[in-house]
Amino acid sequence: MSATTEPLLAARDLVKAHGRTDALRGASAELHAGEVLAVTGPSGSGKSTLLHCMAGILRPDGGSVHYEGLRLDTCTEDRLSALRRTDFGVVFQFGQLIPELTLTDNVALPLMLAGTSRREARARAGEWLGRFGVGDRADARPGELSGGQAQRGALARALVTGPRVVFADEPTGALDSLAGEQVMTELVSAARASGAAVLLVTHDARVAAYADREIRLADGRAAVTEGAV
Amino acid sequence: MTDDVKLAWLFTRGSERREWWRFGLTAVGAFCAAGFAAAAAALASLRGGVYRIPYAEGLFDRPGERAGVVLALLLLLIPTLGFLGQCARIGAVHRDRRMAGLRLAGASPLRVRRIAALETGLACLAGAVPAALVVGAAVLGVGAPPALLWAAVASAVLLVPVAGALVSVVALRRVVASPLGGVRRERRTAGRGTALTGVAVVGGAILLGILGVAYAGRLGLDAPLVLFVAFLLVGLGAVWVSGSFARLTGRRLAGRAENPAVLIAAERLRDDPWAAARTHAAVLLLTVVATGYTGVRQALMDDLLAAGSYPPESLDFYVTGLDLTAAAVGIGLLITLAAVAVGAAEGIAARRQGLAGQVAAGVPRRVLSRALLLETALPLAPAVALAAVGGLAIGTFYATAVGGGLTLPWTALPVPFAVYGTCLLAAATAMPLLRRTVRPTELRHD
Amino acid sequence: MSTRHILLGLLSSGPSHGYDLKRRHDERFPQARPLAYGQVYTTLQRLVRDALAEVEGTDSDGGPERTVYRATEDGERELARWAGETAPPAPFVANEIFAKVVVAILSGGDPAAYLLRQRDAHMARMRELTKVKTTPGADLATVLSADYALSHLDADLRWMTTTADRLSTLTAEVTAR
Hints:
heterotrimer; B: mainly alpha; 2 domains; 16 helices; C: 66% helix; Tscrpt_reg_PadR_N (chain C); WH_DNA-bd_sf (chain C); WH-like_DNA-bd_sf (chain C)
């Protein structure tokens, strides 16, 4: 990962307010192809807001987000939705699985949205669930899964479309430490195997240690960038 | 007890906007319910005899027509109660959490029940009292009424808050039992058996209605009351039928859906078929009544105009009666549509965190709103069709009886379609909420 | 850390010579500081002196001649006693980072900048250890010893974060005395 190559995703001088509180005050970050970047900082430092802006989920009030020559901050909502289906994958602390759908259907959903037939989508979803060790829970619904199993399902859903960037917001936040370590190991190794870059938001140094590089946010600004390996 | 009243008031005042919606809409529902009930009670208390009541071309003067009006008012109570039931669900997640919090803080189950009952009871009272004033004013406009009438009105007005309080206690039974609240939804198992029960209840109710009309006089029963019970049973049966349809449709479609929106809607229906069924009962009842009414009106009007044997005043009397019935059906439709819209809006609000997650993950809002509409549309279609057949049967039966020879009241045909269409429109009015409430800020973990 | 008990423990699985003991130690305890051969030799001599181990004989095996040791019965008893005994939880608080912060305050240095640099160094080491343990095919001993170090580094980091937030109070307290 040499610093001379163009970044895959770049945020510059982002400004974003939630009501009267400023979440971001000129934060910048660059994500290169295939790297794992951790965004850390105390709670309220704007980590999640930075991730939401870079994933095109939130529109920043100021600054720009570039993804491969495309300006995400001025893009249409439809284009952004399409991008999130094809090029991006997201993993949150919880809640990205639809409670009424089986695990397989949850993972198959992004493929079906892209026009893949149900049978084909379910077959590929099954493969990914097997890869993450939850193939035997394929027909269970999220409410019947342990936290670790549900997060593995979420990883499968994020990676099934072969995204170029995976956005992970406190992916281990609801897990005990062993399950958290396992989910992180699987996320990073699967992303490396498929060449996806990962933007990882966490307050936990042990989770951040899975990254190649770290950006620390304080008061809505990227205070320190460190640690290219 | 005063402490509980204070607590209930504190909770109501400190609660967020969504709960104010519940309070406000519950009061509106209670206003309608108490109004209909009080008016019905006032009219029913005039036993026998002919009175001069200067409303609606003298429609209230004679006992025969009064019975019809009482029935119409009682029938209006059914969609109103359905609407009240929907209102109780607005912000229910928050209320449940608060009640569970009270239990954790050491309140006894009895106390929590009392506070919950007081909250709802107060909202209902806030609606019922103005309704009593309106009815009272209308009665005084006629003249000095007997004491029995006042007693009837007062009991009808008091009954609404009491019923509301009881319903909220029943709704909270699972939350109250455990301080951790009703976090896990129990899976209710219902299969073909309940569907058959539903059909049986509907059939029995219709039979009861026919028998009631034919023999009520001989048995000394009030025909309106028997018919009201019959329609209430039809409504209950309709919940069953609609719920079973929802479950069946959900199961069938979930297995083979190719479209993501259909898949999501089908799995939701399979998971909780009764959520939709509660509102649908009122819709189905309304479809039966509206279709039947349209058929009867056509036949009656043809008869009135063609025969020429009625003097103009008497014609006015009948037309006013029909128009009033039409107005009642229209009010019923409005209330039902409001319930459908509230139900759809609450469905979105309660799931907004999950929906926000889907939007963030790239599921287009289009797909989600289509899924939400399908949740209403899928189970409603067969149920409305069934109800339309029932209504048409009534209309045809009446028209044939009046006209001699089989007559199909063709004007009734578009009615079920209109009901179905307006219901979908009502559900669609909740869709802007998807854009407004389903935002990434919901994803922030605190 | 008691090197003599660890060597006794390795001997309890069968007689062995000094070089073999060093190799098995480094293998069994990855990420630990590797044993120096000289240290192995002097420790073995002391074990013999205390009658916890004895010389079994010599073994040449084609190469240079090596002394083979084995544990005595006393040695086995001592080993069992030691293994069952709890380790004293942090009897003395030896915190080099804290000492450096206090010294920086006393000498008018910049403790905040120091803490940031220390944090970066800790993070870099944590990333390194995480790489080691997530390398495909890493055995459980490697994972567990890396986890042990990671937990301690993480604890240091948390301590540094709370200390950095309270530096002004600490400075007032240190300079007042």
